[in-house]
């Protein structure tokens, strides 16, 4: 198993925190397949408590509904690993915190859980900004569970950097 977070992720997390602190913005995370890795990377950096306000680990559909307000109908129609759910997770994290920006991650890290249209490595991301638009993207990452989760961490931190620019 890899050691979390990697030195590269720590450097990237530090860059996220510096940018958000300079802008006076705060962050909330909503994580499923990463199980809190984004929050872990951010909190590994000294001084993160002034910027990271909340971290939601919502691995189950029930947690997505109860903690983030993801509608059961959205989960039923699109499935937990979908753009619609990632968007709802990001928006729910803002609704349930006083953060300015949130990032959400939901995916299939493997080795099981795949379907014909949702392969192992498929991860959906969304970032929501208070008073702004929610942006979403997805990737299909290669490799084992650790590789998918590690790549998802990096992508989520990139999405936070982009959200801070918008």
UniProtKB/TrEMBL annotation:
<dbReference type="Pfam" id="PF02464">
    <property type="entry name" value="CinA"/>
</dbReference>
<dbReference type="InterPro" id="IPR008136">
    <property type="entry name" value="CinA_C"/>
</dbReference>
<protein>
    <submittedName>
        <fullName>CinA family protein</fullName>
    </submittedName>
</protein>
<feature type="domain" description="CinA C-terminal">
    <location>
        <begin position="13"/>
        <end position="162"/>
    </location>
</feature>
<dbReference type="InterPro" id="IPR036653">
    <property type="entry name" value="CinA-like_C"/>
</dbReference>
């Amino acid at each position: 198993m890899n050691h979390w977070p990697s030195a590269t992720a720590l450097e990237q997390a530090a860059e996220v925190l510096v940018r958000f602190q300079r802008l006076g913005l705060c962050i909330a995370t909503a994580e499923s397949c990463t199980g809190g890795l984004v929050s872990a990377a951010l909190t590994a950096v000294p001084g993160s408590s002034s910027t990271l306000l909340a971290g939601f680990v919502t691995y189950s559909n029930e947690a997505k509904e109860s903690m983030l307000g993801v509608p059961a109908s959205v989960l039923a129609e699109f499935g937990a690993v979908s753009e619609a759910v990632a968007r709802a997770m990001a928006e729910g994290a803002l609704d349930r915190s006083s953060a300015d920006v949130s990032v959400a991650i939901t995916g299939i890290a493997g080795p099981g859980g795949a379907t014909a249209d949702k392969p192992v490595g498929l991860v959906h991301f969304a970032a929501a900004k208070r008073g702004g638009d929610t942006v979403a993207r997805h990737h299909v990452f290669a490799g084992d569970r650790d590789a998918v989760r590690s790549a998802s961490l990096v992508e989520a931190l990139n999405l936070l950097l982009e959200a801070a620019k918008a």
